[in-house]
Amino acid sequence: MSRIQEFMDADPGKDYYAKLVEELSELNTKLNAFNNINMSLESGYPVSFKDNICVKGVETTASSKVLKGYKPPFNATVVERLLSKGFGFLGKTNMDEFGFGSFGLNSEKPARNPFDKERVAGGSSSGAAIAAAIMENHVAIAESTGGSIAAPASFCGVVGFTPTYGVVSRYGLIDYGNSLDKIGIMGRSADDIRHVFGIINGKDRYDATCTGMPEGSESQRSSRKLVVIENLLKDIDAAISKSFERTIAKLENSGFEVERINLKELDSAIAVYYIIAMAEASTNLAKYTGFKYGNILDDFSKEYNEFFTEAREKFGNEAKRRIVLGTYIRSASVREKYYYKALQIRRRIGERLKEAAGKGHIIMPTMPMLPPKISEANKLSPLQTYMVDILTVPANLTGLPHISFPTDYSNGLPIGTQVIGAPYEEYKLLDFVGEWEKVFKYRFAYNLGSL
Amino acid sequence: MKIGLEVHVALPTKSKLFCSCKTYVEEPNTSICPICMGMPGSKPKLNKEALKIGLSVARALNCKINEKIGFVRKVYFYPDLPKSYQISQLYDPVGFDGSIDIGSKSIGIRRIQLEEDPARIYREDDYTLLDFNRSGTPLLEIVTEPDIGSEEELREFYAELRSILYYFGVEIDREMKADLNISLSKSRVEVKNVTGIKNLIDAARYEINRQSAMLERGEEPQVETRSYIPESMTTVHTREKETDEEYGYIFEPDLTFYSTNIKLVEPVYASAIAKAYAEKYNYSEKTIKELIAYDRTALELLKSSAESHRMQDIIASLELLKKYKIELDAAKFKKLLELVEGHVNIDYAKLSAIAEGKEVAKESGISEERIEEEIKRFIKENPGIVEEIKENPKSINRIVGRVSKSIGADPRLVLKLVEKVLSQ
Amino acid sequence: MDYKEFERLLEVCRIRLSKGEKEGMKKDIDEILEYFNKIEKDKVGKDVKPAYQPIDLPEQLREDEVIPFEDVDDILANTKTYRFYIVGPKI
Question: How far apart are CA A117 and CA A445, in angstroms?
């Protein structure tokens, strides 16, 4: 029986929840994990949803001013499925606006790392990672486009699970890049994640791109072979590469075979990712027009172009930048050069990665550095920030399942490692992480909601 | 002279193109959902029937059809477009390189594509009013080559297209709109959004005259977009701003590619059928075509009676139905045919009677009283007949035969009345 | 991209920026586009099909049946309405 099922069967009683939401609200003022907390939660296993996942009747903003006050008239499919299976809605977690960011700073209230409040929590699922890191009995539903689950999982010392593209329904997920977005799970153990994944994955009549998992995958065991892609590791911090080598050594000692390869094609992965993501995002953000929902403008007698321009002033800087770049990429004169070519290279990178994942689970550090100080991160240029995704983009661009999990601590800060599988190998990866957890104990800075 | 058309046809599906809301609902903003409202988090899913009809029309218009079709996002900013992009087609449309024959020549069909309709928008002074019932209605856009060379060719082409679409279930009077592109020399003028064949011809005629007059004066017509005003039968420059902004197309990532290898609906080429009947039965092609081009009931009745009745009687009967706006099933139509064959003068009263299943006298002016009178007279003159019928029921035919013939009444009616009289 | 092209692009996007913001954004965009240009060196044959989606997905179609959305009022509650119509800005 899973720990989650045990909790549900134990049914802790109203006082438990009252204490949990009170303590959470208090801590939230320091960490900015939640955009809103359900103070009247009374039952169920506490689950939170990233604020780009629609919860009916609950303000859902994707951390953007353009959606202030928006109350979706429907539940995302993942919300429907979980709430009908004994989970209790705890709140909406903070994120980078529309998913644009790797640090959790592109939000009205920048998120803070629970291990060190002066440092970033990672993004864009910053709040979800913090929530999993500070509560003992919690799973956070999050979303990844270029690494938005793995990155904060690594920085906050939790397990971040991103399934194969198309396995979990995106209906009700506010879009960033439709061919890149995947709903995933953050939690404290592979076991918890496995329980939740079993409920949320599967075909959905509202999502034409949702396939679910193939029959019988649940019993799959981890591969005994691991693949290291050496050329990706050359520009990462020394602390990270040293830690990674120690992790590899441990795994080799416990019987894993490790093969080291080079994939030159991955050099273009970041450029290709951002070209596609921005092109798609610039179309997705066009629907926020200032009069159908969310932030509604006062003066309707302005002519439409002026009205629409004014509505768009509420976007953050990163959102504006991506709209401008994305629109440029989509223009006829450069479409072949950027958009079309990027899609072709994506196919090639996908084929190479699938080949590599066929030999064994690809393993690499999740982030190229330890969680930076917020003041340092704010000094980075946009391009420097994009480069931080260098290790998470390959799997995300090609829709491969991957899990980031804590493998070390350096000066009290967590270091995450990720394993990447071929399509639909998620249960193999969960088995791998489950085995790791038997020999490595995760550390946490807080344990709210302890039973 | 070069005339081309961009025809927008709303398809006869029950639900919308990408969501399950009901199509063609009157009461504003009652048939809407997150998908056709373009709400954040919503996703499209393609209507199987819309795909089927779209491909069927493409095949009916002799188009090339690729193995798979795909969709794109066409981005532009206007309040009636909920997502600020329209899901449409570009590289992999439903059909392309087709044609329609109009006897004298062939008019090229450049492309046919599926796309979603925006909302209905009403302009007020300081704001607009929007009805999203319309948003998401499946549209088929049919773009012709500028092969139409005269007003007459335009009429023939549009009539033929209307007929083909009618037989696919399209509401051709309400759900078919055309953009007219006319150029007499170098400049191409677009007249947008004309509904109905009469308006289309009138708009074309006005434009042709307007442009000709300008050219005669030595002026080149301006490249512009105009609107047709039915009240004055003129075209005017529209207020719509012509932007040269691009649509910034990308592949629609919430949809995939769809196989075209599915069972399609067979087209009905009413013109071709009319021509075949005209040749076979030596009758006016024009007359037959007029009756069946937009009337599937008439076509069925024609088909069911062509072998067994004379074409002139069939046509006369169909024209009666059309004149008096009455519908008959095949059995009742046969009754009508018989009367027409018998040179009976059919008026509205008689036609209604047939529609209601009542018997109608074969000769005009012969009432049931008159027949009964005649029957009674016969019985009086032939007293033994009643006994004869009691012994041999078949002898009733003697009365029926004699009375029918002597006054020229429908034997079946006479039989009924004989039985009535005998029972009294 | 030259400055005029950039300003035209902002117009097309309906994004309005102050002079200072424009300069800042142009600098960032130039740097990012320069980085994107590295894919020019990648040799990709014409026959390589674009990966519109990262995984091959089966096609899924919807039956043509009417399923009315039950919470139309919740949709309308998010916006301004006037006698059944949704109010939009002037055109």
Answer: 11
Domain assignment of residue C24, yes or no: yes
Pinpoint the alpha helices (H) of A84-222: 126-134, 150-156, 190-200
Q: What is the CATH number of the domain that holds A148?
A: 3.90.1300.10
Query: How many domains does chain C divide into?
Result: 1
pTM of the model: 0.92
For residues B118 and B133, the answer to whether their CB atoms sit within 8 Å is no
Mutate to test the interface with C, among B22, B29, B121, B243 (most CBs of C within 10 A): B29
Is the complex ipTM more than 0.85? yes
* C32 domain residue, yes or no: yes
In which domain, by residue range, is C28 found? 3-40
The β-bridge partners of A46 are A88
For C11, the closest chain B residue by CA position comes to: B245
How many domains does chain A contain in total? 1
Query: Is C81's CB within 8 Å of B257's CB?
Result: no
Q: Which domain holds residue A131?
A: 3-220+362-439
Which chains does A contact via 3+ CB–CB distances below 8 A?
Answer: B, C
- Quick one: tokens of B196? 């109905």
Q: How far apart are CA A23 and CA A25, in angstroms?
A: 6
Q: Which residues of A form the catalytic set? A: 50, 124, 148
The tens digit of pLDDT for each residue in A126-141 reads: 999 999 999 999 999 9
Domain membership of residue A251 (yes or no) is no
C60 with B256: Cβ contact below 8 A: yes
Residue C19 lies in a domain: yes
pLDDT digits (tens, 9 = 90+) for C21-79: 999 999 999 999 999 999 999 999 999 999 999 999 999 999 999 999 999 999 999 99
- Dihedral sign, CA of B298, B299, B305, B310? positive
Cβ-Cβ contacts under 8 Å for B86 (sequence gap 6 or more): B73, B74, B76, B115, B116, B118
